[in-house]
Amino acid sequence: MLFRIIQNCFTFTIRRSSNFVRIFEVGPRDGLQNEKIQVPTSIKIEFINRLSQTGLKYIEVTSFVSPKWIPQMSDHVEVLAGIDRIPGICYSALTPNVQGINKVVSLGKKGVDEVAIFSAASETFSKKNINCSIETSLQRFNDVVKIAHEKNLSVRGSISCTVGCPYEGKIKPSQVVPLVEKLLDMGCYEVALADTIGVGTPKSIYELVKEIQSNGIPSNKLAIHCHDTYG
């Protein structure tokens, strides 16, 4: 299971000026969150510690969400307390609401180095996934970003369903652009474009990035989050 997670769950940041690619590992969070069998906390900690030994510099380790909705992430405090933190590695967590960011802040040095928030390019997906409209989610994120910045925590944004949605089908690049702009404007240092259901192709991803860049957003503010759903 761990090999599959490592293989399929990562984000990379676009860099136009060189051949350098920054890999942002999200397997411990995105790869595990939907597993139906509860993964022991000790296994999660070992997984993260092994990732820390690979040379990765950015690892998203867990999320601060309601255990009612995502029970797999209910041990976020224990995971953060148990990992071996290697200097030079940025450990982050998903904090989609004020309750989440406040809990992270309360952990102090046993918290994270930065936090992540996510919206969606599909209205239907947003309502089914986080029980609110896109606009409402953005309003909530403003408060999360404000608290994070007050505590000197960087914030990374992400947008789900930037290529396709399980409910609405194909998503146009023009639907994604304003969301990228809003997340950057509120203080995210970069925005990950997530192909949540794995329907993206080189052509569709290229067209998405090109559309965003044509609106004045530089490539170093963007990341790509891919899923190898269909091989």
Automatic annotation (TrEMBL):
Family matches, as Pfam families: HMGL-like
Keywords attached to this Swiss-Prot or TrEMBL record, sorted alphabetically, are: Lyase, Metal-binding
E.C. designation(s): 4.1.3.4
CDD domains this protein is in?
A: DRE_TIM_HMGL (cd07938)
InterPro entries registered for this protein in UniProt: Aldolase_TIM, HMGL, PYR_CT
Show the GO MF annotations. Answer: hydroxymethylglutaryl-CoA lyase activity; metal ion binding
Q: Name one GO biological process term.
A: L-leucine catabolic process
* Class of this enzyme: lyase
Is DNA-binding included in the keywords of this UniProt record? no
Q: Iron: is it a keyword of this entry?
A: no
- Domain spans labelled Pyruvate carboxyltransferase: 21-231
Question: Would you say which domain of life the source belongs to?
Answer: Eukaryota
Pathway per its UniProt entry is: Metabolic intermediate metabolism; (S)-3-hydroxy-3-methylglutaryl-CoA degradation; acetoacetate from (S)-3-hydroxy-3-methylglutaryl-CoA: step 1/1
Belongs to which family? Belongs to the HMG-CoA lyase family.
Record-given protein name: hydroxymethylglutaryl-CoA lyase
